[in-house]
What does this fold into?
Amino acid sequence: MAKTARRLLVVLYLLALVVVPVGLVFWNALKDGLEPVVEALTDPVVVHALQLTLLAAVWSVVLNAIFGVAVAVLLVRYEFPGKRALNALIDLPLSVSPVVVGLSLVIVYNVRDGWFGEPLAAAGIQVLFSTPGIVLATTFISMPLVVREVVPVLQEQGTDQEQAAQSLGASGWTTFWRITLPGIRWGVIYGVVLCFARSIGEFGAVKVVSGNLTGRTQTATLVVEQLYQNFNQAQAFTIAAVLAGAAIIIISVVATLRVRVERRGA
Amino acid sequence: MTAVSTRGVTPRTTLTRGAGLGLGAVVLWFSVLVLLPLAAVVAVAVNGGWQGFANTLGNPQTRAAIELTVLTSLGVAVLNVVMGTLIAWVLVRERFPGSRLLEVVIDVPFALPTIVAGLVLLALYGPSSPLEINVANTRTAVFLAFAFVTLPFVVRSVQPVLEQLDREAEQAAHSLGASAGTTFRRIVLPALIPAIAAGGALSFARGVSEYGSLVLLSGNLALRTEVTSVRMLTYVENGNLAAASVVATVLLAVALLVLVAIDVLQRWLVRRG
It folds into this structure.
């Protein structure tokens, strides 16, 4: 029957493209028990890389959460010249190659003739090949995610309650904290979770700006690449499995949140 | 100018002082972090003049990389248009045991770090494949990597439209004797076309810009499996920022075109209601 064939095709396609390959990575990582996993994860180079990845991800989440909520409120609640352009340009970081992102940061932050790099170097701040560059690259690449999640929630929420609060004498700031923010909190949480997942996985842009210095500016994804290329494939698969596990846990959380939000909305 | 406060979702027409300051801060931050660096890339490329563009894009290795990337992305976008629409249909209209799980599977490529995506595909389709299928270092690997990372785009853009589709028209067509295939072609498909096109465009843009999943999988062989991003990175690593910027400018133009196309499609969608 057509229905059975359709379902079979979909299931087989997803099995071959996603489920079996991802499952195999977990199998490769865990087939010799937990001991090699612990060993791989306590390697000082790996520990440092994971710490750096986490640091960059936390910065990126904080910056993008503030920026994302502000942009979403402006786009939904206000009219201003250039709104349509801002709305379209916000998505740019998601459709640009990570290597272009890295290149653009190298051009403006290099200490020789970069627009920002030269004055910052004079002030004694080094951006490229150090942590600030990694944070910038990670923040750049995951910028639109919070905006995109908050905009539809804000649109749905409407302005009735905000206007009621203001007519009762609440200031704009109080209205935002007491009415707007609680109403969009699931959208913000959902966006933050996606932003975090994207940030811990960033590879190309970080590779360009970090200099990939082992034990100093190497993030977790860069360690995976180096281990694989140095024929240390078992350890590469182990760390890949850890990152994949984190990613899958994160999207499961997101999926659960989405169901909760939808139920609330219904 | 008068600020008429209307009810409901109509946006306020003017900025309050606080909102104006907020807009200033947001635009400044966005410009410093995103727009100025990208503008600097274009500036470096334009600095080299037409000759710079001609030299870089005339390089056979660079041209081969761009051709491979664009053609493979187009092919994958077509695959996604067909498979993505089919997956969205099955997820929305044909709930069956395990279909909730498929929902999560669709998002896995989006959440997975790209370098891990490359390793994941190597596990099944690489030299140590338990199926003994080894496509590593071939153009098939490039296609496979693009198909993996772009899987969610068409599904996620078609799904909400399909969920909100009024089913009365379909039932009417059916009761007038139209077959399931005809009903789909004449009633459902026309309503889905803008969403399918937007998803296809996003999928194309993502393919063109893909880097991480290919690093370990495709071997990056010059003239054969090297994609644009890898080529660009080689220029960067050799210190040839001018040539890298030319390639980057081409990629940026593609990304902007796709964003404009999607903006137009969305407006069309909204107008049609």
Chain A has one domain: 29-265. The domain at 29-265 of chain A is CATH 1.10.3720.10 (MetI-like fold). Chain A touches chain B through 90 residues (CB under 8 Å).
